[in-house]
Write a structure and sequence with these properties.
About 30% of the residues lie in helices and about 20% in strands. With about 210 residues, the protein is of the alpha/beta class. The protein has helices at about 10-20, 50-65, 110-120, 185-195, 195-205; strands at about 1-5, 25-30, 65-75, 130-140, 145-155, 175. The protein has 5 helices and 6 strands. The protein is globular and about 55 Å long.
């Protein structure tokens, strides 16, 4: 079985990704098991595709092995696509839709990010609060070959957090065709219709059409 290094440190993401890659004889290991030092990879890209590639490529260089990375976030139409690639650090990224509550700290958590987003969309009616989660999964090979797969899930935002499941913006996002947020839906259902699930389906299709040396 071929070994793939995960650029992410998120064990949940690794499990989701390996459920697909294992079908193609690929075993995923965390980056620390591959001897990769605990370094932060600057996400300097302007798109999910760019950031996903940057993370996969840099860890591939450090490990010398096939590497897979995921970059994901929330795109909200009524505020010009924010938070987008800044989703994880939205509350402390004052250059992106600043408001009076920005503190300019280096770290932000889910509650901070959700609070800022809710302040920015509170005056928009429900029908204008359309949004989508996006996930881009990139696999980079030492020989330069690259595979990228993009998945999305459409929905609307509500103005208060609902449900204790999921993470990030899940408690304020209602996927199309449902009346509950990702935070309220059972994890198994949410994971079957999520942006990452859709990206993994696309990744599977692409892996079926290439030869892994």
């Amino acid at each position: 079985m071929k070994t793939i290094v995960a650029a992410t440190k998120n064990k949940h993401k690794i499990v989701e990704i390996e459920a697909i890659t294992s079908q193609f004889g690929m075993n995923i290991i965390p980056r620390d098991e591959a001897g990769v030092p605990d370094v932060e990879i600057p996400e300097t890209g302007k798109t999910f595709e760019e950031n996903s590639y940057i993370k996969a490529y840099e860890i591939m260089k450090l490990s010398g092995q096939i590497t897979i990375a995921d970059d994901s976030g929330l795109v909200v139409d009524c505020i010009d696509g924010a938070p987008g690639v800044y989703s994880a650090r939205f509350a402390t990224f004052p250059g992106i839709w600043p408001d009076e509550n920005d503190e300019g700290e280096e770290d932000s958590d889910d509650r901070d990010n959700n609070s800022k987003l809710l302040r920015l969309i509170k005056d928009f009616p429900y029908e204008e609060r359309t949004a989508r989660f996006v996930s881009v999964i990139t696999m980079v090979f030492p020989d330069g070959k690259t595979i990228a797969a993009r998945g999305t899930v459409e929905g609307h935002l509500v103005l208060e957090e609902r449900g204790g499941g999921g993470f990030g913006y899940d408690p304020i996002f209602i996927p199309l065709g449902y009346d509950k947020t990702f935070g309220e839906l059972p994890a198994e259902l949410k994971n079957s219709i999520s942006h990452r699930a859709n990206a993994l389906k696309m990744l599977k299709e692409k892996l079926e059409n290439i030869t892994i040396d």
